[in-house]
Specification:
Blueprint lengths: L1 E3 L22 E3 L11 E4 L11 E4 L3 E3 L66 E8 L6 E7 L3 E5 L14 H31 L1
Antiparallel strand pairs: 1-2, 3-4, 4-5, 6-7, 7-8
Subcellular location: Endoplasmic reticulum membrane
Family: Belongs to the EMC1 family.
Main location: endoplasmic reticulum
Length: 206
């Protein structure tokens, strides 16, 4: 269930909203989906500065994690515990209440009664979790990363990056090339400074 202003905005972009004097009731959109298991616990990913998209984590007897983004807003992840004991990521856009309503200029996928759980989106890979009962999240040292702990009969700890690892360098980053370029720039800077000072000295003696 989600609340919206409606087909048209109540006020201009950036204008302050005051619910005390609001004359219009918000529009309510709701949608139900079929999932492999009923959620038993929930958590939201957290980061130090809350700049990264947030994920909502849900757990049941199995785990499924849902990630998504709509209109550059929050991302949510729902790990729902499944009988297979897996934690799977599913985009939040598939849970959007307006899905299939023809809004957002076709940015939303077509409505479907069942959520598709991709096999390659499992967070715990080939490890099966037994009786997960709770999900806990905490910020990591990197803004892009959030720590996730699933508790129950088994304990499972991992980290997720809802907005990808935007603050990390790639493994194939060419450190040697950057070092050579920086060294060349330093040498060029001091050489230019040296020759410029010599030129000024010669001009001063004329």
């Amino acid at each position: 269930m989600e609340l919206y202003e409606g087909k048209q905005r109540w006020s201009g972009a950036g204008a302050a909203f005051r619910s005390l004097w609001a004359e219009r009731a918000p529009g309510v959109e709701r949608r139900a989906y079929i999932v492999p298991a009923a959620p038993a616990a929930a958590a939201i990913t957290s980061t130090e500065r809350s700049l990264t998209d947030k994920h909502l984590l849900l757990t049941d007897k199995y785990n499924i994690q849902l990630t998504s983004k709509l209109n550059n807003r929050l991302h949510y992840v729902f790990p729902v515990a499944l009988s297979s004991g897996a934690i799977v990521e599913v985009p939040w856009v598939y849970l959007e209440a307006r899905r299939g309503a023809g809004e957002e200029g076709g940015a939303l996928p077509a409505a479907a009664p069942e959520l598709a759980l991709a096999a390659d989106a499992r967070l715990n890979y080939n490890r099966t979790l037994a009786r997960p009962r709770g999900l806990h999240t905490a910020p990591a040292g990197l803004e892009s990363t959030s720590l996730v702990l699933a508790t129950g009969l088994d304990l499972f700890y991992t980290r997720v990056a809802p907005s990808k690892t935007f603050d990390l360098l790639k493994d194939d980053f060419d450190y040697y090339l950057i070092t050579i370029v920086l060294a060349a720039l330093i040498v060029a800077t001091y050489s230019t400074k040296y020759f410029a000072s010599r030129k000024m000295l010669k001009l001063a003696w004329k």
